[in-house]
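Posted in: Protein Modeling Q&A

I'm a second-year student putting together a small comparison for a lab meeting, and my supervisor asked me to include a predicted structure for YdhG-like domain-containing protein. I've never done this before, so apologies if this is the wrong subforum. The sequence is pasted below exactly as I got it from our records. If anyone can share the structure token output, I'd also love a short note on what stands out.
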Amino acid sequence: MDNILAQHYSSVEDYIASLDEQTQKESHVLIEMMQRISGHEPKLLNVGTLGFDTYHYRYDSGREGDSHVLGFYPRKGKITVYLMDGTARYSELLAKLGKYTTTGYCVYIKRLSDVELPILEQIVQQSYEYIKSKSQDGPIDRILWQTEK
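Accepted answer (user: helix_wrangler)
Welcome! Here is the predicted structure, written out as tokens:
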């Protein structure tokens, strides 16, 4: 956890309580969804990311570490949902999602009411299962969202 963040928020609950009312409500929906899918409680990471479960990676360059399998970053006016295996794998489902934008491994949603939650849950579930299956045999050896379609 980022030391600056740790100084400000002692728990996930404290962090969520610091958000505006709408973002709090939407965060609770996503926490419930990701917790149900992963079976893990959220952990506060970096500057406001909530992560669920972890996997280990080790690249040929020697870089290694741990990352969250599922996660999101709640902010007023935009929630970032992280798909560690990338958004490209979900183009068919994303076409049914609603209003959002993407980058390589992020889905940006202004409000949860802009998207179809069952579709988002399906995407998150598939992403979780994929990352967990890739990490069963040891560290993941590449940046999945840059290499998997």
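A couple of things worth pointing out for your meeting: Helices lie at 3-8, 12-17, 21-38, 91-94, 117-135, 144-147. Residues 1-7 have pLDDT under 50 and may be disordered.
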